[in-house]
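hey so u asked for the seq, here:
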Amino acid sequence: MSPVVAGLAEIVLWVRDMDRALHFYRDLFELEVISPSELPNKFLKAGAGADGVPEMIVLIPHPEKSSEFPREKPKRVLHHMAFRVEAMSYEKLKERFIAEGLEVRSGVHPVLKNVRTFYVDDPDGNECEFIAPAARDGPPSGSA
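ran it, structure tokens below
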């Protein structure tokens, strides 16, 4: 029996500052904005997906601009989201975040072996994980 769910289509995030969020996801991640410019919600293509449905990150302006989202992890609704990246792009992406002055944290995936991971928070405090195959001549499995 084939699974009912064929994949993830969207991760939808509230954002307080659309320009900062776009800089993070569009400019640093190099995700393509696929929604019309006049649309207040921004749809960014994160992967090819299948059957005409791409994998997307959707940024939605939060209606309450006055307060921030909780930055303390135990108070967040979303624990984190993870992105699969190509092995050749892993270090470049990591260096890009460091150059932006963002805190880049190492990790070891609890299930996947022969992968590298690191974490960074977006402007609204959502934790983003990056998972890539371990470098053949690089660090040992699970190290960042």
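Confidence is low (pLDDT under 50) at residues 138-144. The two ends are 37 Å apart (CA to CA).
lmk if thats what u needed
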